[in-house]
Amino acid sequence: MKSETTTGGLKELLIQEGHLDEESAEHATERAEKDNETFLEAIMGLGFVAETDIVRTLLKNMSLPYIDASRYYINKELFKHISMDMAKKYKILPLDVIGNTFIVGICDYVEKSVIDTIRKSTGLRVQPYITSFSVFMSSLRALNPGTTSQPDNE
Fold it and tell me: Does residue 120 fall inside a structural domain?
């Protein structure tokens, strides 16, 4: 079953910023549906948009700071605050808990409601930062070799 994500937001932002044309966006959308992947995974796989352009677009439009998540040791214990499936679905990487603040890196467009859900479920203040998809993927692979960015089928 295809997971529902808010990747329509990323598609619209990339078109709006001039990084993606309508035809390429449609092609990526079709691939995402066919291959059961997110729009982000499809455009990255097709090479339609440079990762730096995705990061810049998210930084500009989500008004969040950037974090180099590759400098963090990703502790499996942090996944008690967010499930691995949720992390994969929304492309959210748990980075640290400092006091009552849960620091996460995101590499895809994420609705505020998702952050609110994490805040409510953890009781922690959630501080999201933008990070890159490649760092997200390498961090997940380091935790679980052979992992994909897709949530596990239930």
Answer: yes
